[in-house]
Design a protein that fits this description.
- With 320 residues, the protein is mainly β.
- The chain has two domains: 19-100, no CATH class; 119-319, Porin (Beta Barrel), CATH 2.40.160.
- The protein has helices at residues 2-16, 103-114, 160-165, and strands at residues 20-24, 29-37, 41-46, 55-58, 62-66, 72-74, 80-85, 88-93, 119-124, 132-141, 146-155, 175-179, 182-205, 212-237, 242-268, 273-289, 309-319.
- The protein is rod-shaped and about 110 Å long.
């Protein structure tokens, strides 16, 4: 898994930094592959269509070039004109200087193009590790300083992380209580499936006007799990004066409400592609239905406060 993630990031890095960026003086940006720069013209191919025709643009119409290695070149060469003289042609330089380049305007125009698509749908690749499949929807607004986050997931197998980390009971897995005069022992508590999870978060983006931004905000969600447990009942027989043990297997349905604080980083890689890292912590409240009253077990986890819920995510998504 680690090697796969490494290859993905290498591929993304190659995509993100493999193109040159050409900014025109009207503050538009073009992703290109520069082929030639001569005295009057710049020749290039569109980065997304490098098998296409070679395109030429006058240098006087270009304000800035950012090459794939990060080098910036500001073009302030005066425009060149061809004028007739005595039946022949000669090249002279226009004495009018190029307009002053506003770097802030260029950077703002580039960023506005990057976030022109406000919606993001992504897949959380961490979910399958926990026996479920998850899709996230994100919508940016308020000049990209806020976004709404809506994750939805459904389970297809046992939630492995919950199985190994989160149990209904604290302490060991054997929990006893008395039901009238009968001694009850609960054991082998297991989650068998995560039925669903859905929620909504409102996040503040601390660097809303940058390609990479940290975000933080509240999240409220609900989920449902199913599972099984074994219960052994020691039944007292007053006639003979001894206990006999009976063991049976039962199922349960657990409903959970999460109240959490989300923290993460949003990478706006391109206009149409983003990466999101997410780490959350908070409190969950569990209610469940089962044939036995498991809350009577002496070490039943009574939703310990303050932190008993954690969540992590790595999502790759498409902006539109």
């Amino acid at each position: 898994m680690k090697n796969i993630l490494t290859l993905i990031f290498i591929a993304l890095a190659g995509y993100c930094f493999g193109q040159d960026q050409l900014f025109k003086k009207d503050n538009t940006k073009i992703e290109v592959k520069i082929l030639e720069i001569n005295q009057n013209e710049i020749k290039y191919k569109l980065f997304t269509y490098q098998d296409g025709p070679t395109i030429s643009i006058l240098k006087k119409d270009v304000a800035l070039i950012i090459y794939q290695n990060g080098v910036h070149e500001v073009l302030n060469t005066p425009a060149v004109e061809t004028v007739p003289a005595n039946g022949s042609s000669m090249i002279v330089y226009n004495s009018t200087p190029s307009p002053r380049i506003n770097r802030d305007s260029i950077e703002k125009a580039a960023f506005n193009e990057l976030v022109s698509n406000k919606n993001l749908v992504s897949i959380n690749i961490m979910e399958p590790l926990n026996g479920s499949f998850g899709v996230n929807y994100l919508r940016e607004f308020a000049n990209n300083y806020l976004h709404v986050y809506v994750p939805i997931s459904v389970g297809f197998s046992a939630p492995y992380f919950s199985q190994s980390v989160t149990t209904l009971f604290s302490g060991n897995n054997y929990n006893s209580y008395y039901n009238n005069y009968n001694y009850m022992v609960v054991s082998d508590f297991r989650y068998t499936n995560k039925t669903y999870e859905a929620g909504i978060g409102l996040h503040f983006q601390t660097s809303g006007n940058h390609a990479v931004t940290h975000f933080v905000g509240p999240y409220v969600g609900t989920s449902q799990f199913t599972g099984t447990y074994a219960i052994t009942e020691s039944i007292y027989d007053p006639t003979y004066g001894y206990y006999s043990n009976q063991t049976r297997s039962n199922s349960f349905t657990l409903k959970r409400v999460n109240v959490m604080l989300d923290n993460g980083v949003l990478f706006r890689v391109t206009k149409s592609f983003n990466i999101m890292l997410l780490a959350s912590c908070g409190y969950h409240i569990d209610t469940f239905s089962a044939p036995d009253d498991l809350t009577k077990a002496y070490n039943y986890n009574k939703n310990a406060f303050p932190l008993n819920a954690f969540k992590f995510g790595l999502s790759f998504g498409y902006r539109f």
